[in-house]
Amino acid sequence: MQTDRQAEIQADRQGFCLLDGMIAPHCPFTCSSVSVCVCVCVCVHVCTCFCVCVHVWVCMRGQGNMSEGSVRKRQDICNGMTISGPTSNMASPSSLLDGDDVKATILHKEVGLVSGISLIVGTMIGSGIFISPKAVLLTTGAVGPCLCVWAACGVLATLGALCYAELGTMITKSGGEYSYLMEAFGPVVAYLYSWTTVIILKPSSFAIISLSFAEYASTPFYPGCTPPMVVTKCLATACVVIIVLVNCLSVKLASYVQNFFTAAKLLIILVIVVAGIVLLAQGNTENLSDPFEGARTSFGSIGLAFYNGLWAYDGWNQLNFITEELKNPYRNLPLAIIIGIPLVSVCYVLVNIAYFSALTTTELLQSPAVAVTFGERVLYPLSWVVPLFVVFSTFGAANGSCFTAGRLTYVAGREGHMVKILSYISLRNYTPSPALIFNGMLTLIYIMPADINTLINYFSFAQWAFYGLTALSLIVMRFTRKELNRPVKCPLPIAVLVVLVSFYLVLAPIVDKPEMEYLYCTIFILSGLLFYYPFVHCRFSWTRQVMKPITMHLQLLMEVVPPEKTE
Question: Among 60-64, 345-349, 424-428, which is the least confidently predicted range?
């Protein structure tokens, strides 16, 4: 009996491709996988060279305008004055300026209310609403429970965000959960969070969104057939490289990119919702006539449905990762949460209703890209608009994921829980470029073997464990840190509910269907203690001796310096 791979090769030679175990004809305009891969690689190379040229041009343009203090600052790096290590006589960046008018080497407050809302909305509305609808429907079994899960996910995200609003205005440090766990439970729990999130959760999330971007970008070129995996992964790689370069070049540029793509995704959401309303007004309600027929209500099914739905809502906590760069965080943080999350919740429920107004449950489950299928069914001959704007949406979500991941890595490095070079800031652009590049490299590793649905399930399993601990930290600090100012105060019953739901989402899939992968995930989280004791708690001198020359060479290469300490 021939293997699946042999069948695929034979089908490809005959002009066919395999789709879900069935043979579907290739589009006559579709080129071979090899030539497409070559074209994609060339595009990646051209885009990379373009971004590097832009960076060089910006550097050369600013070379003649550099103040004497900035020039002296660069010379001090070359002379080895700015090195890492707690025992080094490190010169303060301010002391190197001698009164020159140069910005302090810190992350500057350049994110306002509009950009904050764009970060929340833009990160939440990414790939989930365009991929997860069929996953939620598959686990619930019927339209009614599916819509209920989407609405309940919105309520849960809002309740969780209220907890984060209190924490973010009480502890105005970047890093999100990391800073709150540090204050409530100490460095060990915070380190385990940073260990898991920096190494696994953040880059895998970035990889998932980038793969979704690539899937939707390549689907129009392979009608009726799944795009080759090599093409998808090459496009995802291009997405990661470009986004990391943009975030390294400028905070404002990254914010402008986020604002633009947020506007684009809200536009396509509006188009889908309006199209659904028109269909319902025309009487296309047969798919909603018996919404609870065939529903599954088991413990594990509901938990897995929440996993997939909450993946689409993930991002409601992203603004807490950049609190130090947020203008007037006491006002803008809770206001952005109050505006952004309910807006996304309403959009999600309406979008799912729109899907069911045009597609049966069978059609929705069989669709490789739900939003694209909806566009082909409803918006023809303008169906090309949907995949184009979905590509915009996923690209914007990937940009937001990269933006916040870099800040978490930066804060963990600043607190000594990661290597110090990850806490350094670009001398010219005032961005945490080492942290951003490190996160991008890990993301590229996860892209190679990635499967979107598997990553979603295990990402949610670990992430919701930390969400629950963070909500628990709010309860703990109500009694242990009463002296802290709380401009926004969340009712304790809400925090208790978030803790209970979080641990339900952690335990539900394990109880319903135990798998070894959950054990591996837990072992990985706890294995961080093997690195914590020698490298963080004891701080052996030989580790500093090894890292000192590496840090200095990386400083010279990237032109980065340690951040100034602020009160």
Answer: 60-64
Token pair of 344, please?
């996304």
d(CA 331, CA 352) in angstroms, rounded, equals: 33
**CA–CA distances in Å: residue 29 to residues 5, 154, 221, 223, 419:** 24, 42, 8, 10, 50
Span 98-157, pLDDT tens digits: 334 445 567 778 788 998 999 999 988 876 687 667 788 888 888 888 899 999 999 999
Residues 265-293 pLDDT 10s:
899 899 999 999 999 998 888 888 878 87
Distance CA 122, CA 142 (A): 29
User: Which pLDDT value is given to residue 511?
Assistant: 78
DSSP string, 382-429: STTHHHHHHHHHHHHHHHHHHHHHHHHHHHHHHTTSS-GGGG-EETTT
pLDDT at 223: 76
For residue 471, give the nearest of 492, 450, 486, 452 by alpha carbon: 492
**Phi, psi angles (nearest 5°) of residue 47:** -65, -40
- Is residue 341 within 8 Å of residue 120, measured between CB atoms? yes
Across residues 173-188, what is the average pLDDT? Answer: 92
Band (189; pLDDT cuts 50, 70, 90)? very high
What is the 8-class DSSP label of residue 175? S
Calpha distance 133→152 (Å, rounded): 14
Distances (CA, A) of 127 to 124, 132, 405, 469, 542: 9, 8, 17, 26, 45
pLDDT at 91: 41
Q: Which residues of 352-368 are buried (b: 16+ CB within 10 A; e: fewer)?
A: bbbbbbbbebebbeebb
**Strands (DSSP E) found in 205-362:** none
**Element of type H or E holding 18:** strand 16-19
Beta pairing partners, 561: 425
Cα separation of 417 and 194, whole Å?
A: 8
Q: How many CB atoms lie within 10 A of CB 280?
A: 16
State the Cα–Cα distance between residues 175 and 217, nearest whole angstrom: 32
Structure tokens at 418: 């990661």
pLDDT recorded at residue 435: 95
How far apart (Å, rounded) are the C-alpha atoms in residues 257 and 154? 26
- Cis preceding-peptide flag for 493 (omega within 30 of 0): no
Neighbours of 546 (CB within 10 A): 11
**Residue 82, H or E segment:** none
Report the 10 Å Cβ neighbour count for 109: 15
| Per-state percent for the chain, helix, strand, coil, to nearest 5 | 75, 0, 25
Distance in angstroms (rounded) separating the CA atoms of residues 219 and 278? 27
Ranges 47-51, 294-298, 458-462, 558-562, most confident: 558-562
Whether 468 has a pLDDT exceeding 90, the answer reads yes
The pair of three-digit structure tokens given for residue 356, joined into one six-digit string: 């069911």
Q: Which residues on adjacent β-strands are paired with residue 423?
A: none
Q: At what angle do helices 177-185 and 452-480 cross, to 10 degrees?
A: 40
Q: CA separation (Å) from 436 to 204, 528, 533, 536?
A: 14, 22, 26, 22
